[in-house]
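Structure tokens please, single chain.
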Amino acid sequence: MTTVLCTLYNSLYLDKGLVLYDSLCKCAKDFKLYVLCMDEKCYDILVGMNQQHHIPIRLSDFEYGDDELLKAKENRPIGEYCWTCSSSLIRFVISHYNEPVCTYIDADMYFYHDPQVLVDEMIQAGKSVMVTPHRFPKEDEKQADTVGTYCVEFNTFLNNNEGLEVLDYWRNRCLECCSNIGDGIHWGDQKYLEELVDKYDCVHVCQNRGAGVALWNIKLYAKGDLNEGMMIRDKERDCNIPLIFYHYQNVTYITPTIVSTSIEKGRLDVDYALVYELYDAYLKRIAEKKEYLRANCQIDDYITVHPTSKGPADSIIKKVIKRTLLYKLLWRQYIFQKYMYYLIDLKKS
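Here you go.
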């Protein structure tokens, strides 16, 4: 069965998007990745690359005839508009390409095992929709009050009456408001997922604990056999499990060569061996894509701050890092305040 996935990003996110695609090529048996290109440059580059499993979608084609979406676009910044588009993109892929199922994924993720196992879980449960929980540790569960119990990172919808009804409800809520107000009701497109679970019996909550591993729950896991099959240890169940995907959210580029993982440093409950294994390899892959885009596509910009974040570093930290005598060393770790930083030599990566 072909795994049908969709995501969206603009040219500034191409490095992450291309690394995501490469990860799927390595682990997925058969897949399609529809990409809604949020600017024309992104679309032209992906079309020019002509990759087998990539299906670029031009923004104007996606928006054509969707008056509700275009009305929402008028008064929303780009970050909010991207969140607004997530549910509509699933609907577009299902309706325009007649796909039997579609999963929305975030572009800042990396797959280590075939994601079809997650879709199969939903189908075997007899459900038409699947959402993925944040899986916050107990002491951090109150975060769900603001950002939601579930994460918009792997959300699957079947092309049937049940799936489309739930999808249209989510889309309508996103059209109403996609601000990260943090009032317990609104947080982009994400907080609404709780309503889907409460309102519809056909919604399945993903049970695979190797899906949705991220900075907000990484302390629930430890380094396992990462070199053979990408296994990690589930601390709560005291067993090794396959890491399906890791969500590299809020990777923050302080400069082109200094990156914050946004993971707190010094916590006794975090396995920093796991953190290093994951982020060291991922950031090297990103650096390679950045170099490719600079050399071939004239893209030399980078995202500095996630739309929901104020960023972990202030100007003083930036000056300190830039002045360090170890600036030219490859992949050395630096610690300032409570966040972990990596120093990257792009010329050697």
